[in-house]
Every structure is written in structure tokens, then in C-alpha cells.
Amino acid sequence: MALKKNYLKGKNVCKVTFSLPKQAVKEGKKVFLVGEFNEWNGQATPMKKQKDGSYVATLELKTGREYQFRYCIDGGIWENDYEADRYEFSPIANTDNSVVAV
């Protein structure tokens, strides 16, 4: 898992590429990126499968803030990003969420 950040010059935007490796997806068929940036909509941000079996999605996020997120595999398996900037406890899910700071 990895977060790649590309700050766009002259804009208050950072292009963030989220990736989930094949090992984390296992036998999963559909992976979605779910978080504050899409109002926790489980269908809003599908991730694209790569040739190596990993899944990737790129979003433009406003800079100067943090966003909580998780990966949802096949509608019911939730994974965090092990390379997230930090983690934040979620009382709703009773677990930690990944956090990306831009």
C-alpha cells in the first residue's frame, strides 16, 4: 500500500494516488476507495485493477487538510493503508481509519 502525493503548482490541490497491493486484495474482485472526500460513499470511487493485481485510484484533494479513508473490498472487507500518514479512531466503526494529510 502506498500514497503518492503530487502537489500541483499554482493550485491548492494535491493529486494523491492511492494503491492497494494484490496481497491485501487476495481473491477480491471489486475495490473501492471510501472516505471523507466522497462522503463515505461505498460506490463513489472504484479503484482500477493493474496488471500486477494491485488496485489504484487517483484523486485531487484540497491542500491544507487531512482526510480519513479506508479501502472496501467486495462490499464488506475493510482495509487500512499501512503507509498512511497516521490513523484516527472511528467510534462509528469502532476501529482506526487511515489518514492522508495534504
Description:
This protein has 102 residues and is mainly beta. It has a single domain, classed as Immunoglobulin-like, CATH 2.60.40.10. Helix content is 4%, strand content 51%. The strands form two sheets. Strands 3, 6, 7, 8 and 9 form a five-stranded antiparallel beta sheet that branches.
How is the secondary structure organized here?
Elements: E1 2-7, E2 13-20, H1 22-25, E3 31-35, E4 48-49, E5 55-62, E6 66-73, E7 77-79, E8 86-90, E9 95-101
Antiparallel strand pairs: 1-2, 2-5, 3-6, 4-5, 6-7, 6-9, 8-9
User: Kindly state the mean pLDDT as a whole number?
Assistant: 95
CATH topology type: Immunoglobulin-like
Uncertain residue segments = none
Give the overall silhouette. globular
Given the structure, what is the number of helices?
A: 1
Tell me what the CATH architecture is.
Answer: Sandwich
Q: List the domain count as a whole number.
A: 1
Quick structural overview:
This protein is mainly beta. The chain has one helix at residues 22-25; strands at 2-7, 13-20, 31-35, 48-49, 55-62, 66-73, 77-79, 86-90, 95-101.
List keywords for this structure.
single chain, 102 residues, mainly beta, Immunoglobulin-like, 4-stranded antiparallel beta sheet, 1 helix, 9 strands, 4% helix, 51% strand, globular
